[in-house]
């Protein structure tokens, strides 16, 4: 089986566009299409629904996709392992992080590249569920996600941070003289929050519900930058992870408050697939996370 044809197939499944997949593979679109047809002929199954454009994967295409991803991931690990003993690590370290953890990437990235100057770091923002799927499919070398709430299965983890909630309001309002905010006060505000597909929002809703409260935000978004922009323009409050505190503290427009009865801390950490043997990039990620300021955790 031609591995390049598998690369074409997984790239098309990822990009969902023939021209974009060809560009990602560094080939022309006719070359990619020919490779896909050759793969279909070899397997005796139609893998891609197409009508001058990509429509989707067939049932057979969906079935073989995780296997194709695993084959290519294993090949990448084999290549890395073969060169790891004779030369410094080279290439791209693919890291996925939930939005709540993106501020943690700085210390981790600095540690990783100090230990392995030959690596480049590619950071992707993803949901916790996307990270779990991507790790299983070898699409990512590591992820940064919650370790206690909906954790991915069968991983090795290094804690990086214990998260707390912070309330953000615009200066010039009722919270200017507050030292902390209550859950009831926050629930009564006109809020902008992450949408419910985001794990931080699901955790937040659970904390409100535990106190007999419910929130119905006036605006939702999928990034903290959008939420903070809405607060800054006035009329909104929001809740953010404390990892973003350094990015907000000192802003003349912002009031940043802890909760007077805080929820339990939630651990965030780096996770890699628990494989034996552990690949060189996964091992490098764990070592960098430990150097960034935390000790190793047991497999979840």
From TrEMBL:
GO terms for cellular component: cytosol. PROSITE patterns: HTH_LYSR. Transmembrane segments: none annotated. Coiled coil: none annotated. Keywords: DNA-binding, Transcription, Transcription regulation. CDD domains: PBP2_LTTR_substrate. Residues 1-58 form the HTH lysR-type domain. InterPro entries: HTH-type_LysR_regulators (IPR050950), LysR_HTH_N (IPR000847), LysR_subst-bd (IPR005119), WH-like_DNA-bd_sf (IPR036388), WH_DNA-bd_sf (IPR036390). Pfam families: HTH_1 (PF00126), LysR_substrate (PF03466). Gene3D superfamilies: 3.40.190.290, Winged helix-like DNA-binding domain superfamily/Winged helix DNA-binding domain. GO terms for molecular function: DNA binding; DNA-binding transcription factor activity. Belongs to the LysR transcriptional regulatory family. This is LysR family transcriptional regulator. It comes from Novosphingobium piscinae. The lineage of its organism: Bacteria, Pseudomonadati, Pseudomonadota, Alphaproteobacteria, Sphingomonadales.
